[in-house]
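Figure 6 in text form: structure in, sequence out.
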């Protein structure tokens, strides 16, 4: 089958070798916290200081790390692939952008953006946010939350993702445990619509049985190899 249109899904595993913790590893991001305590709207309503501290720490950390060879290889594929390509990331770090990816969508939001609940604008945010942040657009104080999709909230632009999955010839999942929906279900949509499916991960994910092919190894090694094959 000729491959023209590609959809790639990435998770925390693609940023692990840049030094960013994944969620479910031994040093997992959520090890210190219960997911319900930092990643839900209820958590934010109950303890905004804790949720802001969790995201302020992660935003600061991202500023001190760099894209790795996997991010760079995906950016090269984006620049050189002649067909359609959409990189959907579950990650809220900006390492794909900093490596140069353009055809990119953050389905779970971004650490480097705030969402003002007073004026409903999304604003670029680099430093700490905390509970008393002032919205640069409407000047309201303490109404800015992280622009992150929490559990129970709808991931961004699902129609765009669905259209791309239905039109793709190849779906590649990289560095994700397949633990969270709707991202974990994308492989089924792609298969149903006739795409080939490939998983690249450090270990088989929860959904590995749904993939035509699986490559086990670190993203910084396996992703550049795969991209070189695609561009050969
Ligand atoms: C929704 C942003 C519906 C936050 C994240 C009950 C109540 C409410 C909802 C539900 C419910 N039951 C089920 C649900 C649905 C829920 C869900 O799926 N829950 C799970 C726990 C069962 N999903 C949702 O709530 C979603 N929304 O369903 O909305 C709706 C409908 C109508 C109207 C309104 C709403 C929203 C989910 C989004 C949550 N936000 N992230 C933040 O970042 O803080 S989730 C977060 O975990 C990630 O974004 C990602 O999506 C998910 C999984 O993380 P991974 O990226 O896979 O990372 P993980 O650590 O798990 O795995 C890393 C992998 O990498 C491992 O496999 C490892 O082996 C590998 N690896 C490690 N190192 C390397 C490597 N691979 C390669 N190289 C390496 N070096």
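Output sequence:
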């Amino acid at each position: 089958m000729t491959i023209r249109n590609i959809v790639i899904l990435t998770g925390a595993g693609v940023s692990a070798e840049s030094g960013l913790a994944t969620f479910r590893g031994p040093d997992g991001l959520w090890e210190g916290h219960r997911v319900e305590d930092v990643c839900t709207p209820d958590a934010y309503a109950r303890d905004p200081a804790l949720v802001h501290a969790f995201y302020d720490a992660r935003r600061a950390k991202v500023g001190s790390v760099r894209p790795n060879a996997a991010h760079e290889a995906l950016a090269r594929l984006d620049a050189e692939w002649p067909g359609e390509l959409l990189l959907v990331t579950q990650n809220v770090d900006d390492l794909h952008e900093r490596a140069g990816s353009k055809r990119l969508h953050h389905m779970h939001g971004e650490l480097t953006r705030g969402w003002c609940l007073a004026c409903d604008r999304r604003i670029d945010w680099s430093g700490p946010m905390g509970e008393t942040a002032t919205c640069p657009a409407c000047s309201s104080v303490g109404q800015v939350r992280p622009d992150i999709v929490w559990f129970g909230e709808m991931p961004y632009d699902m129609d765009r993702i669905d259209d791309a999955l239905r039109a793709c010839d190849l779906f590649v999942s990289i560095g994700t445990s397949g633990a969270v929906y709707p991202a974990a279900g994308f492989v089924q949509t792609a298969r149903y619509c006739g795409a080939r499916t490939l998983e690249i991960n450090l270990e088989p994910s929860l959904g590995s049985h749904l993939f035509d092919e699986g490559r086990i190894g670190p993203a910084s090694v396996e992703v550049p190899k795969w991209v070189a094959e695609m561009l050969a």
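Caption detail: The first helix runs from residue 35 to 38.
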